[in-house]
Amino acid sequence: MNTNIIYLDNNATTMVAPEVVEAMLPFFTQRYGNPSSMHDFGGDVAHDVENARHSVAQMLGADYDYEIVFTSGATESDNMAILGTLQYYRDKKHIVTTKVEHPAVLNLCRQLEREGYTVTYVPVDNEGNLDVQFLFDSVTNDTAIVSVMYANNETGVIFPVEEIGAFCKKRGVPFHVDAVQAIGKIPVNVNAIQCDLLAISGHKFHAPKGIGVLYVRRGTRMRPLLYGGHQEKARRPGTHNVPGIVGIGKASQLVIQHLENKDEVARVKRLRDKLEDGLLSQFPNAHLNGNKIKRVDNTTNIGFEFIEGEAILLYLNEKGIAASSGSACSSGSLEPSHVLRAMGVPFTSAHGSIRFSLSRYTTEVEIDYALQVMPELVNRLLEISPYWDSKNKKGKPIGELAR
Amino acid sequence: MWEYTEKVKELYKNPKNVGEIPDADVVVEVGSIVCGDALTLYLKLDGDKIVDAKFKTFGCGSAIASSSALTEMIKGKTVEEAAKITNKDIVEFLGGLPDQKMHCSVMGQEALEKAIKKIKGQKVEDEHEDEGAIVCQCFGVSENLIRRVINENNLTTVEEVTNYTKAGGACGSCIPKIEDIIKEELAKAGEKPKSVSVKPMSNLKRMQLVEETIQNVIRPVLMRDGGDIELVEIEGKKVYVALRGHCAHCVISDVTMKNLVEDKLREFVENDIEVIEVK
After folding, report:
1. Complex ipTM, two decimals?
2. For residue B239, which of B264, B220, B217 has the smallest C-alpha distance?
3. Residues A117 and A211 grouped into a single domain
4. Are A311 and B60 in contact (CB < 8 Å)?
5. Residue A345, domain CATH
6. Residues A237 and A354 in one domain
7. pLDDT value at position A1?
8. Considering the entire predicted model, what is its pTM?
9. How many Å apart are CA B102 and CA A74, to the nearest integer?
10. Is residue A77 part of a domain?
């Protein structure tokens, strides 16, 4: 573990597991052959690619290894799932997704709207729970695909994908799941979900960046985005990213091991809860964003009233702690994150929201340190804030505008 | 991660003059918690000299640093001297700010200006009554502020105006109005706006855009109804097309031409494109 930084931003990216690095290394300088080559030097590598495919299939509970298609990451997987499906069902012009999707889905849908598609963005309530009935009601005979994330990247809130999967199957509408933030945190099983397509990204579960997967259920109708060689049954041509594929295969095995180890899973949850409860009890003006129960175990998103998120991040950074914020300033846009806005989080705390996301490598010492430095840092910012009454230790009444 | 200067980092870590002045002569507030940054400025005067200045700020690192810079700059100055300070001086003091953070320095200037008006006994109506109409409803940015910032910082694009004032940064509905203001201010200054829309488009670029628009926007719509479109020729701003499939025999093909093809080309390429149907 890197001792210089306390990394609590694992929903952004993760450390590549040492076992994964070790598994990948031979494929750079020793076994660098092309798995599509005729000679053994390349051809042998194809076995490693297929072994990795098998590991990913196992992790996802897929029936067939060939349902696993390797891509460059989840952005590509999401685009391939949605565009590839639309390319096949050309007469259908309606898409159903949610208001709180990752930009990989959201911005694609906005572009498709410009091109003449109609998109229904299903809302969430103030705890971030999806309005499933709204989703059911919005599916029509013109709906080409339903695309829903499994767990939200900002709040960790889990969506009832199994319920939606059963509905889509009954209606005969292709169902795509963006499972990027669920994988490695909760068991993900494509048959339990009954999805047709499912996207994951290597670097969110201790594989390297630049490798992802699209699960494509056997018989799913779609057209490729890219044309080229025969790789991945021509669904995703291009020379295999062998080190990345081997890496995501190894990382998948580690995920299976991790999720089987109930103590380990419970440990991550306990640390997250310790951090969350510690912060919420220390600061009466801090609120949890998102459903406390239906949530992945590694994520907490806390809104601190009267102070601003980027400032908190900068102060945390000074203390060697890496976290993330849904505030306007930190994102480079001028409004708080689309997720917090969709949830109707009050502006008084939306601008001060911080996401801490743990991994299986997070230690208790790190959480204790974060809990130890946060009070001083929040209090320093409260002292600077015009909305804080330092004498009476409470927020000042904020005018009409703030609501 | 933002590229902040060492000075900005130093000042957000250890801001100077944080706090309130209990017997302040002037207290002004700008910004709001809804918009994501707000500043309260406290001034203590001795005659026409600013003997003390303190602040409280809700906002990001650069907002805190800008506020600290402002108070450091005006302390010890006469009101007349302080009145000359602009957001550019604050940026200079900080050794620069990222483009998207320029509005933090403008917030400092706004507070100072409001304070000086108060000192001079000018009526400062709450909010923006005397600052002209509100252009950006989302962030409550007035026309006067936009005009001033354009002139003082030689801004020529909407993006720059958004960076400096936030105006247009949320719903974007005021962007046309901001464009008008830029054009007016630049016309006053005798310059031509840099905005892309008025730069003459090269023939090559126009042809490329026409093709892309037909391919990506128009064709998918026509194909839904079993029709298609073929691009025959482009001559300057005249685009010759032929309707195919169902569209070719459609009695309302003239309507399709005007409403769909020409409108879309005007929207995505240039607003004076003319479409001519080749049978």
Report:
1. 0.83
2. B264
3. yes
4. yes
5. 3.90.1150.10
6. no
7. 44
8. 0.79
9. 34
10. yes
For every residue of B188-250, DSSP letters joined together read HTT-----GGGSPPPHHHHHHHHHHHIIIIIHHHHHHTTEEEEEEEEETTEEEEEEEEHHHH-
Q: Tell me the average pLDDT across A1-13.
A: 84
Is B171 a catalytic site residue? no
| In a domain? residue A119 | yes
The answer to whether residue B33 sits within a structural domain is: yes
Position A2 in a domain: no
The answer to whether residues A174 and A318 belong to one domain is: no
Nearest CA in chain A to B215: A115
Interface test with A, best of B27, B60, B134, B173 (most A CBs within 10 A): B60
Please, which residues have CB within 8 angstroms of residue B115's CB and are 6 or more apart in sequence? Answer: B26, B28, B41, B43
Asked, for residue B51, whether it belongs to a domain, the answer is: yes
Q: How many domains does chain A have?
A: 2
Partner residues linked to B127 by β-bridges: none
**DSSP per-residue letters across A201-218:** EGGGTTSPTT-EEEEE-T
**Does the residue A11 lie in any domain?**
no
Q: What is the DSSP string of A39-91?
A: SHHHHHHHHHHHHHHHHHHHHHT-S-GGGEEEES-HHHHHHHHHHHHHHHSTT
Maximal CA-CA distance, chain B: 85
pLDDT digits (tens, 9 = 90+) for A231-262: 999 999 999 999 999 999 999 999 999 999 99
A-chain residues near B220 (CB < 8 A): 115-116
Domain with A84, as residue range(s), is: 18-258
- CATH code at position B92: 3.90.1010.10
Cβ within 8 Å of residue A95, ≥6 positions away: A82, A86, A109, A112, A117, A118, A119, A120, A143, A144, A145, A146, A147
CA angle B145, B148, B149 (to 5 degrees): 85
Shared-domain flag, residues B11 and B113: yes
CB atoms within 10 A of CB A240: 21
